[in-house]
Amino acid sequence: MNASAAPVVQASADVADSAVLGAGTRVWHLAQVREGATLGIDCNIGRGAYIGPDVVLGDGCKIQNYALVYEPARLGDGVFIGPAAVLTNDEFPRAINPDGSPKSADDWHAVGVTIGRGAAIGARAVCIAPVTVGEWALVAAGAVVAKDVPDYALVVGVPAKRIGWVGKAGKPLVLQDGAWVCPVSGDRYLETDGVLAPEA
User: Fold this and answer.
1) Boundaries of every domain in the chain
2) Which of 7, 27, 142, 178 is at 20 to 30 A from 42, Cα to Cα?
3) By C-alpha distance, which of 17, 90, 93, 13 is closest to 45?
């Protein structure tokens, strides 16, 4: 982490005066960071990405080009949001009220997506609020997440379903001698009642 470098904001980006950017954070062309958003140290906000009001990003997050992170999303450290992925915030979306009048901020209640440390959301995936994606989980490209995702889960499809487990390296784990093993690091995990945790 680069805790001493000043944030870098490209001239075409739109960053609200009340947004807080951590040291070393970079905001690229045409990205928008709204009022009250807080971005941690060493985050990377890609071209055309949108960070909504009061959204919180941990340290080392990477928001790829044209991803949309709507308020009040909360992202842990090291979260990856793929290109054109969307984190929604409205359970019952409508542009107008039943009487035909335009909806205002007072006519609905924003709900957020929560994403745990180290998790990754693939390109064009959609997380429908108010879901929680667990730590180090991996959501496949194009998936639609409509229910909570456990830590270390690999989910795919529409709606997204768990098809396996991943380790911190992001590679699918392999079942060996009763434990789930990372083919990259050799780290071992144990599954108990649908919950995966590192072996003690």
Assistant:
1) 8-166
2) 142
3) 13
Number of continuous H segments (helices) and E segments (strands) in the chain: 0, 26
Q: CA 1, CA 60: separation in Å to the nearest integer? A: 7
CA distance 68 to 87: 6
Of 56, 82, 52, 88, nearest to 67 (Cα)?
82
196 alpha carbon, distance to own chain's centre: 20
Phi, then psi, of 122 in degrees rounded to 5: -70, 170
Q: What is the pTM (predicted TM-score) of this model?
A: 0.94
Could you report the per-residue pLDDT of 107-155, keeping only the tens digit for each?
A: 888 999 999 999 999 999 999 999 999 999 999 999 999 999 999 999 9
Place of tokens 């080009």: 65
| Lookup: tokens for 104 | 């205002």
Whether 166 and 172 have beta carbons less than 8 Å apart is answered as: yes
Those residues whose C-beta lies under 8 Å from the C-beta of residue 68, and which sit 6 or more positions away, are: 49, 50, 84, 85, 86, 87
What does CATH list as the number for 8-166? 2.160.10.10
How far from each other are the two terminal CA atoms of the chain, in whole angstroms?
A: 28
Residue 171 and residue 84: Cα distance in Å, rounded? 22
What confidence score (pLDDT) does residue 200 get?
80
